[in-house]
Design goal:
Layout lengths: L1 E3 L8 H5 L5 H10 L8 H5 L13 H4 L11 E17 L2 E22 L6 E14 L2 E14 L3 E27 L3 E26 L5 E8 L4 E17 L4 E8 L3 E10 L7 E10 L3 E11 L2 E10 L4 E2 L4 H13 L4 E11 L2 E10 L6 E6 L5 E6 L7 E12 L2 E18 L12 E2 L4 E4 L3 E19 L1
Parallel strand pairs: 1-23
Antiparallel strand pairs: 2-3, 2-24, 3-4, 4-6, 5-6, 6-7, 7-8, 7-9, 8-22, 9-10, 9-11, 10-13, 11-12, 12-15, 13-14, 14-16, 16-17, 17-20, 18-19, 20-21, 21-24, 22-23
Keywords: Receptor, Signal
Protein name: Hemin receptor
């Protein structure tokens, strides 16, 4: 056993939440509660700002009433090349990692049905949309030789730490939109979500055998990791949009919480060496979201749109034990009601299209205080404004060309965020077992090392569409 016990300066939900894997917090906020960012090339180029414009299947992301705007049937398919880079720094030492994925990012379609009646109802349209998003995210942080653990036999120095997530998130939407007098539009959607991911949390130490003077490196895994999750979720959305004089448009939509059922298989470790594999399941309710939109269509050649989305509630797990209670207490104390503002525009020159957009999502976490290792290896209480996650900026650019019934669009989208990533916290007091384990020993630490992480993502998408 190798243990380092440090004075705890603050007892709060933030302290106890670290007894679990930090990935639980990040995945709850990002994977399960985050918005869908992968649509058609037009949607991506405009940074997702289409709530008051509508007209295609991606309307199901922001406002299903946009389905009612379509006057012709349409099928689209989008190829997506995504790349991310994580740079993680700890007291001047940094490591970077990049990776790319290529997949079918989006498939959608709208079927229009013109109502040949004398009533003001003009169209009733059906739509479907599928989007897939890679969850791959690897963060490696260099070690610090002043962060040491030891006893009479071995001395350990932190050599590196890594969070590694692999997986896929998908969303299938189906909906209906109606056109009333070419002036007001109504819509409703059903949203089916799936997630499959594998999560790793490992620390590597430089081990010095005091008796033999041998030096070697040993890898430790966080208690209850690695774990694999398969999850399914369901939500519903309602919306309306309308036209105003002068080319202005408005939109309003509401999406219910997503009710997730999460199945997890994980490794566990015991001091006596009786390690094994276990399974559990959890039910999560993510925030209720509302979206308000404003649009302007100057002519057939120019349009623009602004969307504002806010999470009205906070994530909440169904309580089945202490772990869910701790998570709920943390989100109650530290989760913000996330807001996102998106603006986008399109300009047409005959059959050629030019698009651009910008989006900003606010920080989902309020300031958190925790015991943190200093550069000299001592510890002190520190407060972080961007712990686990932070605000996100997204910029999109795109072009397109219309070949009458057939069209091709292309887009580039860049997003970036900076946040603080804690790791290494874990202890075993007889009631809580959250240490880091190797085949030979385990490490306890009641303080965290906190890295500065910069995440950059670049998406390149191409959409092929057919209107009929």
């Amino acid at each position: 056993m190798i243990k380092k016990s440090l004075a705890v300066l603050s007892i709060s939900a933030a302290f106890y939440i670290q007894a679990q894997d930090v990935s639980n917090v990040r995945n709850t906020l990002g994977v399960y509660s985050g918005s869908t960012n992968e649509g058609t090339a037009k949607f991506n180029a405009m940074a997702g700002a289409t709530g008051a414009l509508g007209g295609d299947a991606t309307s199901l992301f922001n406002n299903p009433a946009g389905l009612g705007v379509a006057i012709s049937s349409e099928i689209t398919g989008t190829l997506l090349l995504s790349n991310y880079t994580n740079k993680s720094s700890l007291y001047g030492n940094s490591a970077s990692y990049s990776n790319s994925n290529f997949n079918i990012g989006n498939v959608g379609g709208v079927a229009t049905f013109q109502l040949l009646t004398e009533t003001p109802w003009k169209f009733v349209n059906l739509g479907f949309n599928y989007s897939g998003e890679s969850l791959d995210d690897y963060i490696e942080t260099p070690g610090l030789n002043t962060i040491q653990f030891g006893n009479a036999i071995n001395n350990l120095e932190l050599n590196r730490h890594a969070y590694d997530r692999r997986g896929l998130k998908s969303k299938m939407n189906i909906g209906v939109g109606a056109n009333y007098d070419n002036n007001i539009y109504f819509g409703a959607g059903l949203n089916f979500h799936t997630v499959e991911l594998d999560q790793f949390d490992t620390a590597e130490f430089k081990v010095s055998d005091i008796a033999t003077n041998k030096v070697f490196f040993e890898q430790f895994a966080k208690q209850y990791t690695p774990f694999s999750e398969k999850a399914s979720g369901f939500s519903m959305s309602l919306g309306a949009l309308g036209k105003l004089p002068g080319g202005f448009r408005w939109g309003a939509a509401l999406e219910t919480p997503t009710w997730w059922h999460i199945e997890r298989v994980f490794n566990y470790y015991e001091i006596n060496g009786s390690d094994g594999v276990a399974a559990e399941n959890r039910n999560l309710r993510t925030p209720l979201k509302a979206t308000l939109s404003a649009g302007y269509v100057a002519s057939k050649n120019f349009s623009m749109n602004i969307d504002y989305t806010i999470g009205i509630t906070k994530p909440h797990y169904k309580v089945r034990g202490a772990a869910e209670t701790e998570m709920n207490d943390f989100f109650s104390d530290h989760a913000n009601n996330v807001s996102e503002i998106k603006a986008g525009a399109e300009y047409r020159i005959k059959d050629f299209r030019i698009r651009g957009g910008y989006a900003f999502a606010s920080n989902p976490v309020s300031p958190v205080s925790m015991n943190t290792y200093r550069q000299d290896g001592s510890d002190a209480l520190a407060t972080y404004n961007n712990l686990f996650a932070s605000s996100r900026n997204t910029v999109g650019l795109g072009i397109g060309y219309n070949f009458k019934s057939f069209y091709v669009d292309a887009a580039y989208q860049h997003s970036n965020t900076k946040y603080n990533s804690p790791f290494l916290f874990g202890y075993n007091d007889g009631n809580i077992n959250s240490s880091y384990y190797s085949a030979n020993s385990f490490v306890d630490s009641e303080s965290s090392a906190v890295a500065d992480v910069q995440n950059k993502r670049n998406n390149f998408s191409v959409t092929f569409g057919w209107k009929f």
